[in-house]
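dude i think i finally got it to work??
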Amino acid sequence: MDKKLKTETFAFLLFLAAFPIISWGTMAGNRLIWWLGFICLIAGGLLPVWTRYMDHSGDRIRDVGMEFDDRPS
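look at this
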């Protein structure tokens, strides 16, 4: 996987983890856990934006389009 896909996958996992952590912190009344979930939420939102500014010169170029689709019809 290239760096962008790894970063965006990690951001998605942060989003998936953020909401249960925030909920757990709220129900338990623990501010530290709530803030941990909130930081996961913020990081999950900022990482995809950050990938736009990453150096993509080393990424493998893929041919995309209908004429390159290898899936059976």
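The helical segments are 3-28, 31-51.
im so relieved honestly
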